[in-house]
Every structure is written in C-alpha cells, then in structure tokens.
C-alpha cells in the first residue's frame, strides 16, 4: 500500500462531517462515503483508482466492524445516490466505495450469493467501480458507465449480469449510449465456476435461462469472457 494513502486512512478513522451525529447505519455509511470522496490523497489518485481501491475497502471494513450491515442497508445507500451529479474524480470514488460495500456484503453472505440491484431506469455513473470480490452481480435498469469490474487479485470465478442497462460513456465531450443485455465471467477456470453456473440455472426466469445456456459455452481457458444478446 502507498504510505501516503495509509496516513490518510488513519486520519479518516472515525471522522464525521461537522454537525452530523451518527444515529443509524445509513447515516454512518453516508458519513464514510463523504470522508472517502473528500480525502485529498484519494482525489489525487483517481487516475489510478485500482491502486487505491484496496485502501478504500480496508477503510470501509474497519469502520463497519461494529455494525450489522445488511443488503437492505446497501440498497438504501445505492438508491440514495442515484442520478448524482458529481465531478468525475468524486464519482469514481463514490463508485469505488459502493464496490467496497458490495465486497463486504458478499463476505458475510451464504454462498453462492447473488446480489440484484434494480436502478429503475435511473443513472449511477461508475457503479461498483473496481469491485472484484462477489459471486454473482445482477444489475437491471441502470444507466451509466457500469462495467469496470476487476478480479485480477482474486482466484475465484465471478459472474456479472446486466439486463436493460444503458451504457453511457463520455469520450472527448461526446456521450455514447447503448443498451446492454448480457453477462461477463471473470476467472472462469476457477473451481467454483460450475457452482455459480448451476445457481443461475436454478433461477426460473427467461432471461436467466438464456444466460445459463450461454454459460455452458464459456471457454474456461480464458481469463475473461463476455456475451451480449442482440435485440
């Protein structure tokens, strides 16, 4: 870890914005998020977000140790940050913080764990940015740049699924939009891949049946695999 960032983490422990008293886990999580987004050392390195993501994850874990963090709490947090209008650097930090919460939730869940988030056609730029430790991540009706997942530092398979998600990518000031329906697999050669694939196969929904069929065709010798369905 970067020494400068470690010092920043120590400064962050227990810090709450002025005038705010933590009365609930929701308020506590929002305070942690604000602390991450306002941290100077983090802001200076948002062009290398993968380098500081482990520090954000460590910070979130440390400050949630004494809280019973639930899936409902997590969805409340995500819904509360839909359609945010943050500048790019803080948007990435928010996304990375949401990714760290997903990892924390996954660690305490029964496996295989499928987390489903429905954005109800709202936007969340950089959602789950850099997250890597999850089993099955299912996103539907979400708009934004939501496909930057990383699992190079994990050995198990991960499967992400998108349904009716609108990809919004800005390049040279221009916004490019496309509807995504499909899935991706990270580390398909891992031993837990059949378990994840069978769990998806057990879900009796048309979209998941389409996914399950394609999961049987995955080339497990590859590090990554993705497939998007045509309309």
* Helix amount: 25-40%
Q: Rg from C-alpha positions?
A: 18 Å
Largest sheet: 5 strands, mixed
Q: List the uncertain runs.
A: 1-7, 9-22
Provide the succession of SSEs: HHHHHHEEEEHHE
Distance, first to last CA: 44 Å
Which word captures the global form? globular
Give the tally of structural domains: 2
Mean pLDDT: 86
Side-by-side strand order of the widest sheet:
1-2-3-4-5
The protein's oligomeric status is single chain
Specify the structural class: alpha/beta
Keywords:
231 residues; 2 domains; five-stranded mixed β-sheet; 8 helices
List the helices and strands and how they pair.
Elements: H1 3-12, H2 25-37, H3 40-43, H4 49-63, H5 71-80, H6 88-108, E1 114-123, E2 136-144, E3 158-171, E4 174-186, H7 193-201, H8 206-215, E5 224-228
Parallel strand pairs: 1-2, 2-3
Antiparallel strand pairs: 3-4, 4-5
Helix pairs in contact: 1-4, 4-6, 5-6, 7-8
Question: Can I get a quick summary?
Answer:
The protein has 231 residues and is of the alpha/beta class. It has eight helices and five strands, in the order H-H-H-H-H-H-E-E-E-E-H-H-E. Strands 1-2-3-4-5 form a five-stranded mixed beta sheet.
Would you kindly provide a written description of the structure presented here, covering whatever features stand out?
With 231 residues, the protein is of the alpha/beta class. It folds into two domains: 108 residues, no CATH class; 121 residues, no CATH class. Helices cover 40% and strands 22% of the residues. It is built from eight helices and five strands; from the N terminus they run ααααααββββααβ. A five-stranded mixed sheet has the order 1-2-3-4-5. A hairpin with a 2-residue loop joins strand 3 and strand 4. Helix 1 runs parallel beside helix 4, helix 4 crosses helix 6 and helix 7 runs antiparallel to helix 8. 32% of the residues are buried.
